[in-house]
Amino acid sequence: MNQIHVSGSSFAHQKYLAELGPSVPRGRCSNSGFAQSVEKDHIDYMSGQNHSTPRQAFTLIELLVVISIIAILASMLLPALSKAKANAQSKVCMNQMRQLSMAWSLYTDDHDDLLVTNHGRDETREKRANWANNVLSWDASEENTNTAYLTEALLGPYVSKSYKIYKCPSDRSVAANGPRTRSYSMNHLVGDPGVLLDEFNPTYQQFQKSVQFTIPSAIFVFLEEHPDTINDGYFMNRFNEYKWGNLPASYHSESANMSFADGHVEAHRWRVESTKRPPVQGAVGSNLSANPPEDWDWLVQHSSTLK
């Protein structure tokens, strides 16, 4: 009669026998086949081998179902992620405008209430003594990419000479020599315009001191300008023509971020479809009519007051 002798000295062996259950004889077994089977199972257990039936792989149909579910979930999540990213970029842009607005205010405090100069294209290049000293274009001009035109401008010391705050993160416009450095322009009726005083809208007040603002919360200072019209930092349209010479941007869900003379920043949503031009070269042209005039009239009303 074959015998199986189970040593009690091995902890692993005892654990194995315990897992077999109480129905398995301890010490001696009367059936040699059963004993050999138990011994073989014990060896497999101790060696880590597993002779269980392998799990079947996914069928093609099951894989296609899983892939379809993933695709549906992705299509639902991606728009939400894109919207969240756009909202985050808008908040960054608004924070940068707050910093510029604070710098604009501090400059005024340091200069006997005089607002920072706001020159047009030619005088900006001639004097380089402006709130922003570059004139942007689509060509390979160094003014598109040279950050010194911002860090060394009049507001530079008030923003720790940071050039990044002049560029909205949603502005991806690229000139022939690389990404441009500025997205913002200033209301042409705010600040000292130099030789352009009363040149374009002479019946409207030119604000050169902060005390001249009667309702500062209603007059915008900085705004995002469309990349196809931005050049100098002087945002100007002839109010009686109803044609966009300079067009505001609409980077943020058909809105532009704007700062006002009292320091607050807000996003203004444009109503007219023709105002909301895609932010690419050639999107505006030279004769974009402000028709219907709803957006145009709103911007005029928040630019200045009649003398």
Envelope shape: elongated
Radius of gyration: 37 Å
Strand order of the largest sheet: 5-3-4-7-8
* Helix/strand/pairing category: alpha+beta
The total domain count is: 2
Relative strand content = 5-15%
Detail the poorly predicted runs.
Answer: 1-10, 23-31
Largest sheet: 5 strands, mixed
Which H/E pattern describes the elements? HHHHHEEEEEEEEEH
Description:
The chain has about 300 residues and is an alpha+beta fold. It folds into two domains: about 10-45, no CATH class; about 90-300, no CATH class. About 30% of the residues lie in helices and about 10% in strands. The protein has six helices and nine strands. The chain is elongated. The model is unreliable at about 1-10 and about 25-30 (pLDDT under 50).
SSE diagram, text form:
Layout: H1 11-20, H2 32-47, H3 60-110, H4 121-127, H5 148-151, E1 174-175, E2 178-179, E3 184-187, E4 220-224, E5 234-235, E6 243-244, E7 255-260, E8 265-269, E9 288-289, H6 294-301
Parallel strand pairs: 3-5
Antiparallel strand pairs: 1-2, 3-4, 4-7, 6-9, 7-8
